[in-house]
Amino acid sequence: MLGKGVRGIVIGAQNRGKLAVEFYEKGDLNAAMEFFGGIETKWHTSDYDTQLIKVDYGLVPDQEAKRRVINLIENYILNQTTDPIRYPTAGFGVNSNSWAQSVIEYSGGKVSGDMKGLDISNSKRVPRTYLMPFCTVKPRIKVN
Questions:
Q1: What is the C-alpha separation between 98 and 88, in angstroms, rounded?
Q2: What is the pTM of this model?
Q3: 14 contacts: CB under 8 Å, gap ≥ 6
Q4: Which branch of life, at top level (predicted)?
Q5: Is residue 56 part of a domain?
Q6: Residue 99 lies in a domain
């Protein structure tokens, strides 16, 4: 439970020296729980600056949109174990924000505007081959 009857999957891209995707990473989970009221914040403790953005999938049913997103993420996790993307110095390059934008775009979704966070590279995309269900015969495009 993320809070107030809200259930969900928490997925984020992290700087682990490489662009690593993790389910329920502690900071991301705490941020989601704080946003949805699952944990309380106190004035004397640090809290998270969480943002909720609706992704528009047009006429695509919700279940299909969710399936697309999860499939892309599973593919990325498998592919990055053998061919990881180095996390860029100071975030300049393909970073966690560009990863999120890539998943949204490649799954057929659209968002208006940028997301909070390190968005200096929000227009950059993870090469599509990293989110495909198989390793390509030719090497992937290198980034960062």
A1: 11
A2: 0.86
A3: 20, 21, 22, 25, 96
A4: Bacteria
A5: yes
A6: yes
